[in-house]
């Protein structure tokens, strides 16, 4: 119910539902509410959901990052810094984003800004071409997806080289036109990559599946199976 109400944008009602539950809400309940707050930019309830999660699972870095995302989207950089300081004091480290794609019985792994892959030059060249085509379709980088208090141009550069984009482009370069692309990500896919991969699926006419920590995202013809809610 919390997830359904959150998907409908009824975040206040979802929070009210939790408060009236006859049982103690667990991590999954508060996690669903926090995710809804991120999507619908509800900072106040997001903080309450995060506080409960920090008590239930204090070592889970993902919830700290989610709250940081909510603060960053609101431009509240002091709070973003406070969350980072809290993580540091508790010894909690953000897991680096890693994307994998299997090709020819070999798993290829990418990090954000990866320069170590043998085909890095080709990947970045093709990514530049795709970025140009994406902009022609109206794409503008979702700079809210990066947690750095810097100029938008710097944020755009950081977003452009996220690991899932590199993995998708690598797969495009090395598979047949009609071959479906499957990528796994060890973290939640960011908002900018989600928008970008939708457009890439439309430009290349390729089916692309990304499995992140929450669900499978099936991209085709510019749409995603999650309905832009994750």
UniProtKB/TrEMBL annotation:
InterPro entries: DYW_dom, E2_motif, E_motif, PPR_At4g14850-like_plant, PPR_rpt, TPR-like_helical_dom_sf. It comes from the Eukaryota. Residues 138-230 form the DYW domain. Pfam families: DYW_deaminase, E_motif, Eplus_motif, PPR. One of its GO terms (molecular function) is RNA binding. GO terms for biological process: RNA modification. The keyword Cell membrane does not apply. Keywords: Repeat. Belongs to the PPR family. PCMP-H subfamily. PANTHER family: PENTATRICOPEPTIDE REPEAT-CONTAINING PROTEIN, TETRATRICOPEPTIDE-LIKE HELICAL DOMAIN SUPERFAMILY, DYW DOMAIN-CONTAINING PROTEIN. This is DYW domain-containing protein.
């Amino acid at each position: 119910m919390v997830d359904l109400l959150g998907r409908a944008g009824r975040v206040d009602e979802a929070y009210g539902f939790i408060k009236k539950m006859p049982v103690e809400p667990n991590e999954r309940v508060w996690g669903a509410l926090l995710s809804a707050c991120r999507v619908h930019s509800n900072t106040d309830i997001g903080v309450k959901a995060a506080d409960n999660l920090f008590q239930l699972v204090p070592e889970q870095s993902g919830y700290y990052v989610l709250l940081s995302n909510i603060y960053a989207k609101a431009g509240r950089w002091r709070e973003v810094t406070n969350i980072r300081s809290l993580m540091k004091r508790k010894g909690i480290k953000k897991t680096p984003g890693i994307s994998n794609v299997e090709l020819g019985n070999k798993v290829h792994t990418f990090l954000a800004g990866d320069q170590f892959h043998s085909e890095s030059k080709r990947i970045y060249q093709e990514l530049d071409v795709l970025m140009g085509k994406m902009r022609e379709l109206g794409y503008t980088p979702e700079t809210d997806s990066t947690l750095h208090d810097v100029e938008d141009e710097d944020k755009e550069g950081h977003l452009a080289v996220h690991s899932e984009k590199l993995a998708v482009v690598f797969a495009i370069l090395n598979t047949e036109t009609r071959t479906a692309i499957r990528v796994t990500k060890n973290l939640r896919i960011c908002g900018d990559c989600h928008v970008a991969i939708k457009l890439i699926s439309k430009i290349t006419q390729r089916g692309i599946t990304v499995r992140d920590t929450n669900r499978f995202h099936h991209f085709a013809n510019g749409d995603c199976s999650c309905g832009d809610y994750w």
